[in-house]
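Sat 14:20. Reprocessing the chain from the morning session after the first attempt stalled halfway. Input below, unchanged.
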Amino acid sequence: MPVGTAASVKALGPDDLEDIGVGILLANTYHLFLRPGHEIIRNLGGLHRFMGWNRPILTDSGGFQVYSLATLRTLSEEGVVFRSHIDGSEHVLGPEKAMAVQEALGSDIVMAFDECPPYPSEYAYVRDSMELTTRWARRCRDRGVGENQALFGIVQGGVYRDLRIASAEALLELGFEGYAIGGLSVGENKETRERVIAETVPHLAPDRPVYLMGVGTPEDIVEAVRLGVDMFDCVLPTRNARNGSLFTAEGRITIKNAQYAQDARPIEEACGCYTCRHFSRAYLRHLFMAREILAYRLNTIHNLYYYARLMEALRTAIRNDELESFCRTFYENRNPPEQG
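Finished this time. Tokens:
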């Protein structure tokens, strides 16, 4: 899922995303709650109409942003009192309010409100945090969401196996339309992250989607799919595009490097995206070095197209029972990291 935090995927319009083949976007409850406000969006016909996007939307609950962006937060059983990172104004967000805001937004997939413990954290803190998230999940389930909205629970528990299993089993008992693995990609290493995923997925419902939040690189996605994950979101493809880092089957290229100044090839020869069909690496380097806004749009189109094709290829491999063969080819094609 490309990230459209404030009801916009940076540098692209909905028509660009449809052309790329994007099937679902992520928008963020915390940001839209603060600006422009969920009631304004409701009054203007809901998030789909507001942003001109007719395909599915998932909204995060805001729990992670309260943890990562808000200042002077106070945590209690009822929720979180926090000050906006925008203007310092004080707000309260809890399970029922998070459900009400997301109902007003009209997203298709609603995330339960959770607490994301920092990494690293002591076992006792993470245990208490996980148990609070579980109680909040029950309140989200009890409050419910709007018609035609699916509610996902979020598994927490840090890097502790027993806490992750306890969280997963408690959420499974509550019964959600899907399950997310939260609290990762917050500073832990790759090996730890993959261990946590491997220990958590078997305890979730096999007939419900599993969503790994905030991950990640193409390699991270391939490995998580092998472990049973279905859905992902990450700012990486769009943020990297704006920084001139472009994804290809052979690895990343940094378009500002001098070696591309006269390179007439597209970013990737076999790529069918609009950028690769029309423009050279030399032109894209020129736009990036000149800080032309078009650079951000063209780079973002390519990176999201790459990610969309990667997910499409993974789905095809799974359907054809060829996932391991696909993964071997994926890694064989990777070049050593680019120098310079």
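The chain has two domains: 14-234, 244-332.
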